[in-house]
Amino acid sequence: MQMQPVETHAYDTDQYAGDVQVVMSQVYLLMTIGLMITAVVAAAFAGNPQWMINLFGRSPILLIGLFLGQILLVVVLSATVHRLAPGVAVGLFVLYSALNGVTLSSIFWVYTDASIVSTFMITAVTFGAMSFIGFVTKRDLTKLGSLLFMALLGFAIASVVNLFLRSEGLYWLLTFGGIVIFVGLIAWDTQRIKQMAAMGLADGRSRGGVAVLGALRLYLDFINLFLLLLRIFGRRR
């Protein structure tokens, strides 16, 4: 899930270069912590067959509630992060990361551990390269970002439609198209977070709020790219 684009290019990030780098380091640290929590929870949950049966093998109500709870957390955190105490914002992000780990535990029963690890490494390298480009480029990616956001909406709608169509051709079209979308979003979101940090510093906003929101956005980009790449590189059990 992605948040709508905001106009941030009016702020000069060079004016706050040192402070912006501090905020960005916090963003990457929080995102890494979130990914680690997700991985640990997913592995632990997948290692308990009874938990997996209770969640995925019985009533779908619990699983639906889990999905809805995650969506609600993203919406609440995105809308209120600048009004929350830093500790509360970080706590909600950690909670979301843990709940997402429960949801993603199913991949350990579908794909081999080795393919999950190798795909994670491919995702990490791709993420690092695109985030670096987004951080250092002087080119304004706003127009590209708007196109990517519209493409993301189309991707989401088509993915829901294909749940009913079950078209293999559309499945792979969405897979490769989604990879392109999220690779671009990583660069765009990185530049946007950098600009948000400068905007927040100029307006006197809390660094913590910007860091948590930025970490959430990049976390979502990473997870979505990882799941799409897993369709290609994952080896089924």
How would you describe what is shown here?
The chain is mostly helical. It has one domain. It contains 9 helices and no strands. Helix 1 runs parallel beside helix 4, helix 1 packs across helix 9 and helix 7 runs antiparallel to helix 8. The chain is globular, with a radius of gyration of 18 Å. The chain starts with 16 loop residues before the first helix and ends with a helix. About 3% of the residues have low confidence.
Layout of helices and strands:
Blueprint: H1 17-46, H2 49-56, H3 60-80, H4 86-104, H5 107-110, H6 113-136, H7 142-165, H8 168-203, H9 207-233
Radius of gyration from the CA trace?
Answer: 18 Å
Whole-number total of structural domains: 1
What's the N-to-C terminus distance?
29 Å
Quickly give the structural class.
mainly alpha
- Mean pLDDT, all residues: 90
Tell how many strands the DSSP assignment holds. Answer: 0
Q: Quote the beta fraction.
A: under 5%
Main sheet characteristics:
none
Short description:
This protein is mainly α. The chain is 81% helix and 0% strand.
Question: Which descriptors apply to this entry?
Answer:
237 residues; mainly alpha; 81% helix; 0% strand
